[in-house]
Amino acid sequence: MIDRDETLKALTRRQLFQRCTTGMGAIALASLLNDDLLAASPTGAMDAMSARQPHFPGTAKRIIYMHMAGAPSQLDLFDHKPKLIEFNGKDVPAELIKNERFAFIKGTPKCLATPHTFARHGMSGAEISNLLPHLATMVDDVCFIKSMHTDHFNHAPAQLFVHTGSQLQGRPSMGSWLTYGLGTPNKDLPGFVVLTSGGVQPDGGTALWGNGFLPSVYQGTQFRSQGNPVLFVSNPEGMSSQVRRESLDALGDLNRLHLSKSHDPEIATRIAQYELAYRMQTTVPELMEIAKEPKEIHEMYGTEPGKTSFANNCLLARRLVERGVRFIQLYHWGWDSHGTTPGDDLITGLPKRCRETDQASTALLKDLKQRGLLEDTLVIWGGEFGRTPMNEARGGSKFLGRDHHPHCFTIWMAGGGIKSGISHGSTDELGYNVAEEGVHVHDLQATILHCMGLDHTKLTYRFQGRDFRLTDVHGKVVEKILV
Amino acid sequence: MTLRIHTALGLMLAISGMASAESPVDFVREIQPIFKASCTECHDGKKHKADFRLDSRIDALHGGETGISIVPGRSKNSLLMKRIRGEGDDDRMPVKKPPLTEEQTALVARWIDEGANWPENADGPVAAKVAHWSYVKPVRPSLPSVKHSGWVRNEIDAFVLSRLENEGIEPTSEASREILIRRVSLDLIGLPPTLPEVDAFLNDASPDAYDKVVDRLLASSHHGERWARPWLDLARYADSNGFEKDRVRSMWPYRDWVIDALNDNMGFDQFTIRQIAGDLLPEPTKADRIATGFHRNTTLNEEGGVDPEEYRYYAVVDRVNTTAAVWLGTTMGCSQCHNHKYDPFTMKDYYRLSAFFNSTKEETTKGGGTDPHDVSSKLTVEVPEVKTLEAEIGKLKAQTPHPATSQPTVNRLAEMQKRLDKAKTFSTTLVMAELPNPRETHIHVRGGFLSLGEKVQPDVPASLPRLPATQPAHPSRNRVDLARWLTSPDNPLTARVTMNRFWEAYFGRGLVETSEDFGVQGSPPSHPELLDWLAVEFMDRHWNMKAIHRKIVLSATYRQSSDIASALVEKDPSNKLLARGARFRLEAEMLRDQALGVSGLLSRKRGGPSVYPVQPEGIWNTPYSGEKWIESAGEDRYRRGIYTFMKRSSPYPMFTTFDATSRELICTRRPRTDTPLQALTIMNDPAFVQPAAELARVVVRESGPTISERVTFAFRRVLIRSPDAGEVVRLTALYRKELEQYRHDPKSAALMANSGLGVPPASLPTPELAAWTVVANVLLNLDETLTKG
User: Fold this and answer.
1) What distance in Å separates the CA atoms of residue B147 and residue A11, rounded to the nearest whole number?
2) Same domain, A264 and A395
3) Is B444 domain-assigned?
4) Is residue A323, in this structure, part of any structural domain at all?
């Protein structure tokens, strides 16, 4: 769609001066420029982050993607398989695992029924596990996709596959593609924000929100709940906001003096970026200041100001959405239920993860809905692959657990033009393979871009002689789940 | 395969010449018109359906998606004939036009049987692929004549000025000495000059004063550190494996090898040969083997369920793509899945190239915490710190007769032992090691890891010059042959691509702007003759890198002022014509090095395992990894950026904010962005606040007593040039204001003056230090400071 040359041409068209440094130096975060400065600046209008028209009117304006890193077990949360009760403890049918490669399972594994119970909820009668009592109250607003499948069954490659369309590091992430394609309406915050919880960063590392070969302005900005919410947003100890203001005034004056001599328009951009940085020093801490939210909101989300938690991140996601941020990504780590310790056991570990996330993710849906934001905000919840219908029993472990499984898993989506109260696709009786309406990761990506008004085959960027896309050369929009 | 075709071609020609009484088919007169009328509407350079072309000799003989189409001498075995005749299941060709007449069909068959003689010059302008400028060997162009020959300092200037004169543009006058010494120091050693160096230059009236500066810088050991930085981006050098666990890898000896090689001014040909094939040289030295770490910088996935063979395949693919990008400036990666759409590279070319890299012992993993590396592809090296620590421990033990009885000594020994243990974990480096029996290499159909196609042998792309006949010493071709071919004088690309990268580093854009793509899709050179002159000069000077650096920085072109005259903005807004000096933001590592340098904090210690400068808490937080960022002690906190530990999943944040990559893949050209996060970093990152506080101490300690003397001193330390009156006035006003504030707020003053450096000496007044720290912070954030001008 807009490749680098196009961007540069636009710059040429709209600028009095073309930047004298070439390449991506020509692109600044000018959408974030103060309007007055923009008018005064010779570098002017075109910028990498200003809001742009989509290919066609989309049903969503922004996205919250809750990634459950480690891959939650669909068989214990969403995809109820009574047949597994019958087969519990029995060898899995040999034809299913012929030529299969597992991450940890050795030999012939035994089927494992879920140790949890399922019930139907809502008008839609969606069947979900007792581990998700909060989500049970919102199933009519949600679309479950039970037929997801992927090509990768290790965490880092599979997470990278979901978020960049490739299992290898170095490709642009979905949020980068979206901000590259659409810019962002917000003037004082980054367009693509990442929040993590669960103790560690996700397995795929910062490459999950990396810009790959897109200009670095499109990389995700990580907001942190401990220390500086955005790296280096706070002044050094001993420097008050007043001293900072005064030093930026001096900096601006000196930069303008230099601009008058060297006539380099890049200087004007730099001046503007420093002013935006100064404003971020106020807007970011304000945004992170969730303590001022009313009591009922804290009760609804289960938030505790000052803590690092998924709940706090969900509330922050709503606050970011309200401020017009384009793409918000939440990672919660710890769903890797192998059954090797109490921590990753299906009976003790999995419910803990659910308690950490169920209330808050449901609260986020409810909160968006009550504020009228759900209709044009696309919410996605899911992991990077599924888990096996068989007990992993690594080294004879007595804990219950399931190995990595790329052939099927469940995610849910809501809002932003997605049909609500439906379940799409299904798996076979044992939950081993997709039975109908398979949705590949590239299909999901195509659908997400479609909701945002972008044709996944047209959102391209030329790199090393090739036009790259988020969906590589694959992907089909899942029309059946669209409103 | 292509080689075989060519041999067959020669053979068949000879045979047909003897055996045929009939006059041979004339391709241009008899065959080409048939192709033009019936075939090339679909099978030309534009559409190349099924990746097959009949408008260009090379492409036609290479075949398309379904393989070789024309087998010279064997019309019966030629797919082309089957399709023309409509034999087999596929549609008869042409699909949308009437079939060839019997006469035409017989003529084409006879032409093939006679050896498919297709004269090289028959295609005319249609054979764009072969004629593309960068695939033709450069020849030394003669110097153009110019009107203002007085401006010309060396050959470079003749090319640049000739172009400017054609456009009616005048070059800009030479930059001031202060600007020039800052520019050339940053370019050649990546550090700003010291004030004594500046003053020496300003006071040197000899005509070769500038040349002396240049020669001093080229001889400096910092030169290698500066120029290793872009090379390590190409080499995707990192200190960790990548992917989930992203464990630490000991690879620093390779980084030091690059720095040393550049400092020693190793010829670029040797520099290439050792990195690609140092292990296969006769009697390789340890350094030769360390150099092969270049291709051991590939990522490694250690997760439980990884198929080692799959990730080994990815590593081989990465080696092919990286080699092609670094030396040939080509986007070979396209041919992993299909024949290149624009450039003359087929899938077969791709996998033949991959065969050179397919037989090394591997770094594959079994997971589960066992050491993933094959011991035989790991080299043991000496860690400088180990010796020092062992000596210190020995000394301490000797000094204390009963070390166990003294608690402080016990603690000290324990701490030193810990450091020693850590240092010892860095006593290896990864190297290439060839298997005794090479693996078979196949084409991977559509690039798939498991879909094996035809078997191939190691070879270079068929459209480029051939490999010389195999040396008797090597029964089969190996990486040495490839490396020698890359730096052979017949290779049209390597010298051009390398010279273009040099140019890009100095001027902010290459003579070919797409420095990563010299192919048909790349941008054409702005000064083709200058590029060729540099390439030939480089080769003729035995690939002497410092000679070219010297040539460039001594040119009048390089020495121009970077101020932008308004007339120039309209005529050449992007400075493509080089009518002024370059002006662009410094790269990430240089920004930090500069701040450390001007403050005096910089440690000039060289080499050794990577270090851990100040970094915010919580950046390293990788699953299934207990590795922690523990800030280095002492001067190691203030080493140059090239020595900063590079963890792929959590790179040093300041670097990535300023467009460095996380080094998973080759980075041929860093973008240059300008964002508010960059502003916040220079404003508030301790990596920049500490130098500001240090500079404040230096100012108060070393400068004259008046405020304006101090302002001037600090300004010159940072910007090298002297401030003008307006600048002094503005900074003085800021200083006075902040001094007043800090006098009334001793607590803040103490914090500001400390800034992580520790409590300042009592002799230095705290409010003054705090106020000078604010001034220094402003100086470090000036656009001019962040920019090479």
Assistant:
1) 35
2) no
3) no
4) yes
Domain ranges, residue A261: 4-50+238-281
Q: End of a domain among B100, B123, B146?
A: B123
Total-model pTM? 0.79
The answer to whether the beta carbons of residues A65 and A330 sit under 8 Å apart is: yes
Q: Which of A100, A109, A201 is nearest to A153 (CA)?
A: A100
CA distances (Å), origin B579, targets A265, B207, B560:
17, 24, 8
Q: Rounded distance, CA A122 to CA A135, Å?
A: 10
Q: Alpha-carbon distance B66 to B445, whole Å?
A: 11
> For residue B347, what is the enclosing H or E element?
helix B347-355
Place of tokens 């041409």: A9
Per-residue model confidence (pLDDT) at position B455 = 93
Instruction: Tell me what pLDDT residue B16 has.
Output: 34
Dump pLDDT digits (tens) for B721-780.
999 999 999 999 999 999 999 999 999 999 999 999 999 999 999 999 999 999 999 999
DSSP character string of B187-242? HHHSSPPPHHHHHHHHT--STTHHHHHHHHHHHSTHHHHHHHHHHHHHTT--SB--
Q: Exposed, middle or buried, B285 (CB in 10 Å: 0-12/13-18/19+)? A: exposed
For chain B, the domain total comes to 3
A window 423-442, beta carbon within 8 A of B: none
- Residue B626: predicted pLDDT: 73
Q: Residue A249: which H helix or E strand, with range?
A: helix A241-262
> How many domains does one find in chain A?
2
Which pLDDT score, from 0 to 100, does residue B61 have?
75
pLDDT band at A474 (very low <50, low <70, confident <90, very high): very high
A378 located within any domain: yes
Is A376 inside any structural domain?
Answer: yes
The verdict on A337 and A206 lying in the same domain is yes
Same domain, A435 and A347: yes
pLDDT of amino acid A213: 83
Residues in A touching B567 (Cβ below 8 Å): none
Say if strands A62-69 and A377-382 run parallel, antiparallel, or are unpaired.
Answer: parallel
- Tell me whether residue B622 is in a domain: no
Greater confidence (A365 vs A217) lies with A365
Chain B contact for A254, CB < 8 A? yes
Based on the number of CB atoms within 10 Å of its own CB, is A337 exposed (0-12), middle (13-18) or buried (19 or more)? buried
Q: Same structural domain for residues A30 and A135?
A: no
Kindly state whether residues A368 and A255 are assigned to the same domain.
no
Q: Is the bond preceding residue B609 a cis peptide, omega within 30 degrees?
A: no
One domain, residues A318 and A409: yes
Nearest residue of chain A to residue B772 (CA atoms): A247
- With an 8 Å Cβ cutoff, is A330 touching chain B? no
- Say whether residue A153 is in contact with chain B using an 8 A CB cutoff: yes
Domain presence at residue A258: yes
Closest C-alpha to B579, from B151, B268, B124, B46: B151
Query: Which of B373, B398, B425 is where one domain is finished?
Result: B425
State the DSSP code for B29: I
Q: Which tokens in the block code for residue B684?
A: 């508030």
The answer to whether A273 contacts B676, with C-beta atoms less than 8 Å apart, is: yes
Q: How confident is the model at residue B375 (pLDDT cuts 50, 70, 90)?
A: very low
Question: Two tokens at B571?
Answer: 């005529």
A205 to chain B, any CB pair closer than 8 A? The answer is: yes
Kindly state the tokens that stand for A100: 């299969």
Residues of B in contact with A104 (CB under 8 A): 304-305
Cα–Cα distance measured from residue B52 to residue B64, given in angstroms and rounded to the nearest whole number: 4
Q: Report pLDDT digits (tens) over B311-337.
A: 889 899 999 999 999 999 998 888 888
Q: Tell me which residue range forms the domain holding B688.
A: 684-788
Pairing of strands A434-436, A426-427: antiparallel
Q: Round to whole Å and give the CA distance between B500 and B329.
A: 10
